[in-house]
Amino acid sequence: MKKQLLYLSLAMLPATLFANEFNSPGDGSTWNLEKLAAIDTVGVTLESAGVYVMAENVNIAAADKFVLESGVTLKMGNGVQFYSDGMVDMNCSTMTTITRNADTDEPKGFYIATEEPTGKMTVKNVNFEYAGLRTWFVGEMDVENCSFSNNNGKNSSSAALVFGPSGGKYNVTGCEFTSNTVPAIGCGGNVQIGLTIDGCTFNDNNTQNNNKPQINITAGGDNDIIIRNCTLKGGKRTMVGAISVANMMALEGTNNVLIENCDIRDHRYGITHTHGPMNITIKNNTIIDNKYETNAMNGGSGISLYDPYGYQNTYIEGNTIQGNLWGITIIGGANVNLGKTYDPTAADYNPGNNTFKDNGNNGVLYDLYNNGKSTVWAQGNTWNVDEQTNEKIETVIFHKADDETLGEVIYQEGADGVEGINADAIGQNAPVEYYNIQGIKVNNPTKGIYIKVQGNKATKVNLK
After folding, report:
1. Rounded to an integer, what distance in angstroms lies between the CA atom of residue 80 and that of residue 155?
2. pLDDT > 60? residue 149
3. Comparing C-alpha atoms, which of 244, 241, 163 is closest to residue 205?
4. Is the pLDDT of residue 2 over 80?
5. Torsion angle, CA of 158/160/166/170, rounded to 10 degrees?
6. Which of 57, 112, 132, 394 could form a disulfide with 155 if both were Cys (CB 3.0 to 4.6 A apart)?
7. Are 418 and 460 in contact (CB under 8 A)?
8. Is there a cis peptide before residue 107, judged by omega within 30 degrees of 0?
């Protein structure tokens, strides 16, 4: 009798309490929220016109497809994840929202891991609130006119928008990232993807303030990393930088990186490139007040190049670098070109045109700090001094003249077409060193054009 009463009580409870996560049949069928909500045993319900609640996980099989309806609101429950091994179409014609159900819910969001993608997936006009988007497929995806806000990190601690594995190609255009507890865009340290981020806005992401920037990605191998026309506004947090592109595992490939026409303000640091082979171009950016590192010995650079093993080629042109603890810091650096103006026909010609202002800490101005042994070219720039003379420019640059173990910065053209530093201090008996046009020291130069360094003066010579 007790068992019969128990069965009767269970039968009277709402069916939604026994809803199970949904697994599509894998028969080539196409699913959407309306179709899922029509099945009583699936944890997706229609709350009101155009508003759906997903209380349990939904899993789409590899052979099946899911289409997100335009203009709807999907409210996801605590810990709930939409997962797909099949194709997903989120190309919405009107704004569509994915958010949490209750104020205390922390949903995971969408995880797309299509096994064999065909064509290009598109995510367009979708607002992700408290829920993220993560991919794990080798294919192509456009993420366009979307917003990501208040992400809780449950889908991934890497970012609100996470890409992988290696080999995928992604375009993120016209999107907005705001107040996510984790970084805005990220991928794994061993994940090489092609990524273009264009015309996006980033505002105070990684609000939990750990040591990750708003954009935190790995060099792309034979696919390019491009970040351009973006605005990155920090929350003046002590641990959060703006952009980091790294190659921590020295992964192979062309590893081309372009950061161009971005406005970067109020972070721990602005742009950093760390470890491993990369070909980097940083051009026409505004990098201001990235100074919120509490210890200047640990960060606060407008641009930081960490290349202790000498793998990177870096081209820097036309940037405004102002109000940072350090303007540009270089640790190592195989080939750093901030301006190389002596030969406009040369393949590595760079007009410079970088402007430095009010970068410094502890009462000392630091426009450029060369903490490596390589020669750094930095001609054609405007330094933070009232007169662009050698004597005054030396006060805002740290290099060989300050520490004999460091490489020289060649920063101003002389009558000979190349830098002439402290001409009064030339030692006639000083040893002579030769550098090729890439700034690499040559011990036994043969015929050709070199930079001859004797004492504190560098001149261009043609050995015949």
Report:
1. 9
2. yes
3. 241
4. no
5. -150
6. 132
7. yes
8. no
Using alpha carbons, list the distances in angstroms from residue 255 to 6, 137, 167, 451: 65, 20, 13, 29
Contact present, 282 and 250 (Cβ < 8 Å)? no
Are 208 and 182 within 8 A, CB to CB?
yes
Percent helix, percent strand, percent coil in the chain, to nearest 5: 5, 40, 50
Span of 18-22, 201-205, 221-225 with lowest mean pLDDT: 18-22
Q: Write out the DSSP string of 300-348.
A: -EEEEEEETTS--EEEEES-EEESSSEEEEEEE-SEEES-B-S-TTSTT
Element (H, E) at 22: strand 22-23
Identify residue 371 by its one-letter amino acid code: N
Average pLDDT, the chain: 90
Tell me which residue has tokens 């760079």.
Answer: 350
CB 225 within 8 A of CB 217: yes
The three-state DSSP-derived secondary structure of 231-298 is EEECCCCCCCCCEEEECCCCCCCCCEEEEECCEEECCCCCEEEECCCCEEEEECCEEECCCCCCCHHH
294-321 pLDDT per residue, tens: 999 999 999 999 998 889 999 999 999 9
| Cβ 389 vs Cβ 424: under 8 Å | no
CA dihedral (386, 388, 391, 392) in degrees, to 10, reads 30
pLDDT at residue 423 tops 60: no
Question: Is residue 387 pLDDT above 90, yes or no?
Answer: yes
Instruction: Please say if the pLDDT value at position 400 is more than 80.
Output: yes
- Other CB atoms within a 10 A radius of the CB of residue 384 amount to 20
Single-letter amino acid code for the residue at 443: N
pLDDT band at 54 (very low <50, low <70, confident <90, very high): very high
Secondary structure of residue 37 in the 3-state scheme: helix
Which amino acid is located at 398 in the chain? F
**145: which 2 tokens?**
């006119």
Q: Categorize the per-residue pLDDT at 11 as very low, low, confident or very high, splitting at 50, 70 and 90.
A: very low
Q: How far apart are CA 235 and CA 438, in angstroms?
A: 39
pTM of this prediction?
0.86
Give the β-pairing of 432-435 and 448-454: antiparallel
pLDDT score for 9: 37
pLDDT of amino acid 426:
38
Whether 227 contacts 260, CB under 8 Å: yes
The token pair at 68 is 């997100």
Pick the closest to residue 334 from 307, 357, 304 (CA basis): 307
The beta-strand segments (E) located in 366-447 are 368-370, 376-377, 397-398, 409-410, 432-435, 441-442
Cα(394)–Cα(338) distance, integer angstroms: 16
